[in-house]
Amino acid sequence: MTYEEQIKAIRDYSYRKMSGDSTGHNCDHIERVVKTAKKILQQESADSLITIAAAYLHDVADDKLVTDPAQLENEIKDFLNSLELSKTQIDEILYITHNLSFSKSLSENPPRLSLAGQIVQDSDRLDAIGAIGITRAIYYGGANSETIYDPKIKPRQKMNKKEYRNLDNETIINHFYEKLLKLTGMMNTPTAKKIAESRHQYMLDFLDEFKNEWDTEK
Ligand code: ADP
Ligand code: NI
């Protein structure tokens, strides 16, 4: 199979898997992550097939989106095998998709990613900030029946993955302080850091305006 045929098959597979999502991880998210990864790739010498494949597949077996991630990882393995990718390539891609999530970075020993993995992680994180990031947080919060805002509930300072995924006492606005405003400082590549700056400022402006409007006595 040629490189183009492999990428096309991976894209079609990812679209089939993600098209039913209604939490902000639909095909439009995947396509933006791939586009950003390609942009960063122009500045970095990472393996293009590994990077693009991992970008397309990064949410397919996400444990917050599917009930049996291990089964889906096996399915992805078989699928990539059928496209004649080598075992090393398949292992590299699955290592990235398994480890790039923000929730993994909350563990005591966060996994180290290859340059390809860092690029996909940056691309995914860039889609979680700025105007699109604000929209996705609200969309995700709505899909999970989160409270919009409650000044009495303070953002959590330290949390493990389980606490991070527990939305009982979570608000959409607190999610900005618990995750989204931290992402700019966590970008791996200079290209992503640069793109993140204005998106970060946009979120700060949004939060200022939101709180002004909330607090009508101000
Ligand atoms: P990752 O895939 O890196 O672990 P998350 O699962 O934390 O990322 O988030 C994926 C998307 O869902 C992001 O756009 C994020 O802002 C949104 N999201 C995750 N948790 C919340 C939350 N508690 N409230 C609102 N949005 C959230
Ligand atoms: Ni994603």
Estimated share of beta-strand residues: under 5%
Poorly predicted spans: none
Q: Structural class of the secondary structure composition? A: mainly alpha
First-to-last CA distance: 64 Å
Shape type: globular
Helical segment count: 10
Radius of gyration: 18 Å
Helical content stands at 55-70%
Ligands bound, unique: adenosine-5'-diphosphate, nickel (II) ion
Mean pLDDT: 94
Question: Could you explain how this protein is built, in words?
Answer:
The chain has 218 residues and is an all-alpha fold. The chain has a single domain (3-214), classed as Hypothetical protein af1432. 60% of the residues lie in helices and 0% in strands. The protein has helices at 3-18, 27-41, 48-57, 69-82, 87-99, 115-126, 130-143, 161-165, 172-178, 190-214. Helix 2 crosses helix 6, helix 3 crosses helix 6 and helix 5 packs parallel to helix 6 (115-126). The chain is globular and about 65 Å long. Adenosine-5'-diphosphate binds next to helix 7 and helix 9. Nickel (II) ion (NI) binds at residues 25, 29, 33, 58-59, 124.
Features of the shown structure:
218 residues; mainly alpha; Hypothetical protein af1432; 10 helices; 60% helix; globular; binds adenosine-5'-diphosphate; binds nickel (II) ion
Topology summary:
Layout (H helix, E strand, L loop, with lengths): L2 H16 L8 H15 L6 H10 L11 H14 L4 H13 L15 H12 L3 H14 L17 H5 L6 H7 L11 H25 L4
Helix pairs in contact: 1-3, 2-3, 2-6, 3-5, 3-6, 4-5, 5-6, 6-10
Adenosine-5'-diphosphate binds next to α7 and α9.
At a glance:
By secondary structure, this protein is mostly helical. It has helices at 3-18, 27-41, 48-57, 69-82, 87-99, 115-126, 130-143, 161-165, 172-178, 190-214.
